[in-house]
Amino acid sequence: MFTGIVEELGEVTAVEQVPNAARLSVHGPLVTSDAKHGDSIAVSGVCLTVVDVSGSEFTVDVVHETLQRSSLAKVNVGDKVNLERATAVGDRLGGHIMQGHVDGTGVYLSRDPQGLTRFALPAALARYVVEKGSIAIDGVSLTVASITEDQFAIALIPTTLELTTLGRNEPGDLVNLEVDVVAKYVEKLAMPHLTGSAHNVVSGTEEQA
């Protein structure tokens, strides 16, 4: 589990294509300070498993499914990435509950002088995004300032722009999106009732709701 509070801005130092996956090496002195094989580190919002640690660099394998769903398919040597170690039990929940399971990608559109930043919103994710709700963009926990049918906006403070990749985005850049997992669970639980196919167990018999 992660909270979307980026600990460090890392840099990709190597990209190797392996069967059905890509192997990335990332420079991150802080997150590697206590990292070991098998640990989880979020790389721009994608939860990945450490397969090797060497000095201030760690190596992860990104499987085909993750490459299909995230911006990591386009990552190159020298690219900056947001890094966060998995949250320890008892730590402060500074952002919101995140799994590091990217739901899809959005597109950076623009940012005005006040820091209001707009992103294109995939239609498949729009129903999970609400004004003043939480969303993770490239692993950063953020609050939705406004939303339309196909776009949403975030008010980014100078610190976030400086310390994460969000201050380096250019129009057209892909960003990883993770919507609030609670919304997805609520939808699945409510769907049978909304479609009239729910069943209740009453006195040992199954009754159509």
Describe what you observe in this structure.
This protein starts with 7 loop residues before the first strand and ends with a strand. The chain folds into 2 domains: 8-85, Elongation Factor Tu (Ef-tu), domain 3 (Beta Barrel); 104-188, Elongation Factor Tu (Ef-tu), domain 3 (Beta Barrel), CATH 2.40.30.20. The protein has helices at 64-69, 158-163, 181-195, and strands at 8-18, 21-27, 40-43, 46-54, 57-63, 80-85, 104-111, 116-120, 134-137, 140-147, 151-155, 174-179, 199-202, 205-208. The chain has a 6-stranded antiparallel barrel. A 6-stranded antiparallel beta barrel has the order 7-8-11-10-9-12. Residues 198-209 have low confidence and may be disordered. The chain is built from 3 helices and 14 strands.
Provide a compact summary of the structure.
With 209 residues, this protein is mostly beta strands.
